[in-house]
## 1
Amino acid sequence: MKLLALLFLPIFSFAQIKLDKKISLLNNKVEILAPKELSNMTDELWHIKYHNNPRTTVALSDENGEINLLIDDTQQPVAPYQLGDYKEFEIKSLKEKRRDVKILGQGIKKVNGRTVGFIKFSSQASDQNVFNFLFFVSVNGKLLLFSFNCIEKLQITWEKVADGILDSIKIK
């Protein structure tokens, strides 16, 4: 059995998604890593997925629109010590707006010396369940919001990638 597992190990390691695209934000004040599989979302796809909502600062997607990373410089004032309260507010809002939301994880952690809040949850789209991962940080006293989502069948692979994106946040 161990030999069989070793034979398949190279296959799994090639399937691993790498964070090999550097994204700089806010005049190079913030840097994250993302996979090259995500590219700029077309206006047509934005309209299909997010209708008439204002486009975020960064909107990336895979070619099928099944995996998305949005980054929004909200200009909402927030201090690092307020991120826990913001997290609780977002969880409450999610649950009030949508009965289908199931919280999968939440917390506050230090990433490269900065406080980052996060919420993982599932929700129902029109035709299937979606894994959502919100994470947020205070930059220059303003909320920088990251929203990652993918269809549920891709969650096993892409949740680890999203964790890596969060862990790659660097603020200069």
## 2
Amino acid sequence: MPLAVESVSVHWSELADGRLMLRFKVAGCASLVIPSFKGRGRADDLWKATCFELFLYDGEGRYREFNFSPSGQWAAWRFSGYRTEREDWEPLAVPEITHDHGANLFALTAFIAAAELEGAQMAAISAVLIEEDGRRPSYWALAHGKAEPDFHEPACFRIALPPRSAA
């Protein structure tokens, strides 16, 4: 159970400049632990701190995972099946990450190339939130397929994507 976090929402937009914008909003963020800026670039284990995620599933068992941290760091992998054969994924463009923080609302905005959606049939959005009290993280997703949160679980892929063709 979260200490103060009330809700997590996501706004998803494809922009005219060819980017996909994901804006994650956390309401009730008074105790949210926000990683400090560590420079832009790839990093591992971002999910061990406050982190926001996008999963893209191809309909045949393969999927890609993107992690976005308030630290400015990101990660991207592809999997050949459920948690199998993980490989680093080189995004079409380096993700851009910004965030804003107010008294009750935290917003992280991540931009990736909208072309990353090609071949994806389903998507999942999730967040790992750490709060100051030292409790275990809270895990946020549209759905959890099991009693314990597992964002890789196929039941989590709930956003149907329209077919895309290469430009």
